[in-house]
Amino acid sequence: SYVVYGILANGATTVMYEGAPNWPAEDRFWEIVDKYQVTIFYTAPTAIRAFMKWGEKFPKKHSLASLRLLGTVGEPINPEAWIWYHTVIGRKNCPIVDTWWQTETGAIMLAPLPGAISTKPGSATRPLPGVVPQIVDKDGAEVTDGAGGFLVLREPWPSMLRTIYGNDDRFRAQYWSQVEGAYFTGDGARVDEDGYYWIMGRVDDVINISGHRLGTMEVESALVSHPKVAEAAVVGRPDEIKGESIAAFVTLESEYEPSDALMKELQAHVVKEIGAIARPDFMRFTEALPKTRSGKIMRRLLRDIAAGREAQGDTTTLEDHSILDKLRGKDS
């Protein structure tokens, strides 16, 4: 949609690149931007955090003056990555459009209108005209006062899906059975006092610790805000007492080495940023995180590793199987 037919339908030109963003060097994307005078750059937060780890020297080798708009998609973006993206890539001149949507919605649903809606780092801001989202609890009642809940859509929209091909029963069960009269997105979110939406991640990525619901993105953002951390992924881990506990997989900036002292330092940092409830009980340092070829962290695989299970399900989209093998090897 945003690579081919959406662009062509609007008479625009698209630049597609298939390959690693760090080959033959870590400035591959920025070289392409300057070469083809790209005006709009759209990528995933995971990729932005990788750029941060590689350092500012690579984008600073290039002008990037053709860019006028930056977009982010695929998962919630932590405020630190948003600010880096705006400052280093956009040179503080490009609005950032943090978009929330799904393949199933057929179009962007939550996003700022560039230049018209004030942005907040980490928020998808407001619904587009005609889109009616709501945050509800497990019983379908609206949640207020900034509390987290399930993101649903209460009214139809022009590009909504009509079925899953050949499987109407699954379509009804997946999207329409959880909350009566609403489309169930499968994402957790909250709304702040200004009516801005903050996506917490997939419902599977919301951890229930002794009855307290905590979005994994909140903990990841706290970890990444530490100057020694380049990237982090957080998942829930079964816990006999609390129901679930927090497991963190952490990639450090290149000049730092893993140690028990650093692990305690990071745990204390999370407590300081969020509170004791968010302290990771399990932390593993890793050189890289398992990601799809499009840059999304495969948290499903990390949940299996944290729980001591063999990785289950499809791994064909995994970019580098050696990362998963290394993480498994440390478990054995």
Series of H and E elements: HHEHEHEEEEEHEEEEHEEHEHH
CATH architecture of the largest domain: 2-Layer Sandwich
Name the CATH homologous superfamily of the largest domain.
Answer: ANL, C-terminal domain
Task: State the share of residues found in helices, binned by percent.
Answer: 25-40%
List the uncertain runs. Answer: none
- Distance from N terminus to C terminus (CA atoms, Å) equals 42 Å
CATH class of the largest domain: Alpha Beta
CATH fold field value of the largest domain: GMP Synthetase, Chain A, domain 3
Care to count the β-strands?
A: 14
Radius of gyration: 20 Å
* Estimated structural class: alpha/beta
Mean pLDDT: 90
Range of strand content: 15-25%
How would you sum up this structure, described in words?
It contains nine helices and 14 strands. It is α/β, with parallel strands linked by helices and 332 residues long. The strands form five sheets. A four-stranded antiparallel β-sheet has the order 6-7-8-9. A three-stranded parallel β-sheet has the order 1-2-3. Strands 12-13-14 form a three-stranded mixed β-sheet, with helices on both faces.
Short summary of the structure?
Helices cover 26% and strands 22% of the residues. The chain is α/β, with parallel strands linked by helices and 332 residues long.
